[in-house]
Amino acid sequence: MTADPYAANSTSAHVDAADRPYREVTDARGRVYRVGETDQDILGHSRKLMVYLPWAAMMAISVFEYAYGSAEDTLSRAHGWTQGNTFWILSVWVFFQAGIAFPAGWLREKGILTARKAMYIGSLLCFVGFLALSHMSNVWLAIIGFGVVGGLGAGLVYATCINMVGKWFPERRGARTGFVNGGFAYGSLPFIFIFNYGFDTANYHRVLDLIGCYIVIVVFGCAFFFKDPPKNWWPADVDPLTFSGDLKNATSLVKNPPAARQYTPKEAIRTGMLPLMWLSIVLTAGVSIFGISFQVDFAKEVGFGPLVAASSMGVMAVINGVGRGVVGWLSDKWGRKPTLVFVIVVLGLAQFGVIWAGAVKSEWLFLFFAFLSGFGGGAFYPLFAALTPDYFGENYNATNYGLVYSGKLISGLFGGGLGSMVVAAWGYNGAYALAGGVSMVAAAIALLLQQPGTSEGSAASEPQPAG
Hints:
This protein is mainly α. Helix content is 71%, strand content 2%. The protein has helices spanning 5-9, 39-43, 49-61, 63-66, 68-79, 83-99, 101-109, 115-135, 139-168, 173-186, 189-197, 204-223, 250-255, 265-270, 273-302, 306-334, 336-359, 363-392, 397-405, 407-446, and strands at 23-26, 32-35.
């Protein structure tokens, strides 16, 4: 007679298991799963809402990064800023948007800051950011208001939304993380065209103020329903020991097996894999931010009309977002690491393609490579977001992914501000060639990634559990 694995592995030193609505199951590697509670039991509704609400919030804050490049010319004329001023404002925004992820995650996992409060605070800081961009002509005040305050606000919203999905869908996080992450790109599409065709020095106050109000309303409304699952939670309809019970998840769990155990940030760093992920995202995000910052200006420099310039950025934003959902789905089928390497290589090749399109003055080629650049330049984000809990577990994912994503704060410096210096020194062709080379280095680093604690990973790098 086969023993019941649930009964054999249920553990509780001080609570009678019969009084709990869940059981704790331990697999052969020692990882604990909390099973028995459905999403309806915890939330009162389907966990699908924890996909659609974060997606809507990400759509709202996408205007910060992906539409900013289309507003730069009008902002420069309205406030008397140089091109360098506008690029550094965005670079500072990227620095703080990425930098808040780790401390926010630490506060969440310590119980000091709930997901709902993080979203509330983030929405208000985003509003202040757009008010500063609208009304502060002094570049330093704009940097503080939009770059620092707005960056912190957008970062709080971004990190909370991404981690929410990873926690609620531990068995099939790829496609859902990609879907939510995609909203951060294509949500900006209406604003890209507004900034290119309906944004000028006569109405910029009104437009920017209304955008700030829009962000507050959407994010604040979504935040009301946010709630994290209990630690170690696992969906009741999937056996964590055999992965049976839901055949549509079988392929994903085989290609992307759950983490060997729940790693604290210090343990994740000691495996060596988290630092490699950090370095890869530094390089890849730098190339992505460079493309976002300079594509419209390069199109105008080559001689393409405003429609092509705006359309190229629109194409980049849409494909950037849609591509995130597609590769999230593909990573469930192919595996996270092969998909990540593929995406980074595509991003690198696209940079060289943009140079070629400009050299032959082909608008269609330019739009095609803008398509590829948009695909590669966004799709790696959800892959890293899904790979982090795949490698290190869900319990400390807010801090672990915060550490990985913090690489973007370095990327913002050389992708935007330093990118403008390279353009000034080497021209657009030299800068795009450098970006392509950097992307290839990032792909090579991604090839070194291995899941800790499995036959694929290095036993030497595996830290021992505390105690």
